Amino acid sequence: MPGLPSAARVVESRFAAWTRRLRPPRRLKFTREGKFFVGITLGVGFAAINTANNLLYLLLGMLLALIVVSGIMSELSLRDLTVVRRLPLRAQVGRAHLVEIEVYNHKKHVPSYAIEVEDLRAGQPADKRCFFLKISPTSAQVAAYRRTPLHRGRDVHVGFRIATRFPFGLFEKSREVPAEGELIIYPAVDAVQLPPPSNGRTPGADSIVGRGHGEAFYGLKLMRPGEDPRDVHWRKTAAVGQMVMRERARETRPDVTLMLDAQRPAAAGDEWLATFERSIRDVASRAVAHIKRGDRVAVITTAGGVSRGDRTLGADPLLRYLALLEPVTLPKPPLRDAAE
């Protein structure tokens, strides 16, 4: 039925919202020191109950008070914080880039201490974090972490994990804040030595010769009214007796076509994918080298995709296309009847 997919999406979204409501607003984790502290507290409490010693009860009350104070002060540090992520304009495999994290404290009188912000990415372990020793009231602090991507494609950021061990380091209290962000990781680009361009037609490049306004001279012609007299060929004019002009050649640059096999056989495994990634890296390297030289580049895949780049547009559109390119799996060939 046509209404089933939309109904399934509605049910899925409601279930996700329901699970978010059931998730506790704060998460508490014992540190190594906290485990020892809680063990000592339980031991003192057990001894106080068994001996009915007032001094042990007093000590137990002090230990429990430290736990309560730790919970209150850590909660004050985590409250009213806003985290903003600033991603770079571009990122590339094998090259480190910086991601800025800004934390703003909206509290008017209470500072936040020992704040640790962990940047969360979809489908990847959270391995990058920033530490803020103190964030004063109604002020912001900025830190950055360095990351070197290993794979091309979309790097989806989903949120932050804000944690603190303030004030005694016995417990780590944290909360998660959703904050979406996306960064396109370009494929790696190697230095490529291109052959010098030739004047004629070369494989993979088309040179067009014609009249225009370039620097080279194409030929001679008779001067027409309104044309620039600076191009008059005076020696030829004196010999012929008529105004003869130099005709300039049109400035053209070759159009380079780079082919990329993006059709994956049905039985292909990891080896084919590794070869495909190497092909993308090679095409990206050659395309960037041609664009730096001033060529117009077109990348054509066997799956039917096309992307173009030149010195005016830059290499960004072409590298973005290669970063998001996924292989197309070919259908399995039909099995022939044994009787045939």
Structure description:
With 340 residues, the chain is of the alpha+beta class. 31% of the residues lie in helices and 32% in strands. The strands form five sheets. Strands 1, 3, 5, 6, 8 and 9 form a six-stranded mixed beta sheet that branches. A four-stranded mixed beta sheet has the order 10-13-15-16. The protein is elongated, with a radius of gyration of 34 Å. The two termini are 40 Å apart. The model is unreliable at 200-215 (pLDDT under 50).
Summarize the structure.
The chain is an alpha+beta fold and 340 residues long. 31% of the residues lie in helices and 32% in strands.
In helices, the fraction of residues equals: 25-40%
Classify the secondary structure makeup into a structural class. Answer: alpha+beta
The coarse overall form would be: elongated
Strand content: 25-35%
Would you list the SSEs in sequence order as H and E? HEHHEEEEEEEEEEHEEEHEEHE
Number of distinct helices? 6
Q: How would you state the average pLDDT, rounded? A: 82
**Largest β-sheet summary:** 6 strands, mixed
Report the C-alpha radius of gyration, rounded.
34 Å
Quantity of strands, as a count: 17
List the topology elements.
Elements: H1 4-22, E1 27-30, H2 32-51, H3 54-78, E2 81-86, E3 91-92, E4 97-105, E5 112-121, E6 129-135, E7 139-147, E8 153-164, E9 171-186, E10 205-206, E11 217-222, H4 234-240, E12 244-248, E13 255-260, E14 263-264, H5 270-293, E15 296-301, E16 306-309, H6 316-324, E17 328-329
Parallel strand pairs: 3-9, 13-15, 14-17
Antiparallel strand pairs: 1-9, 2-4, 4-7, 5-6, 5-8, 8-9, 10-13, 11-12, 15-16
Helix pairs in contact: 2-3
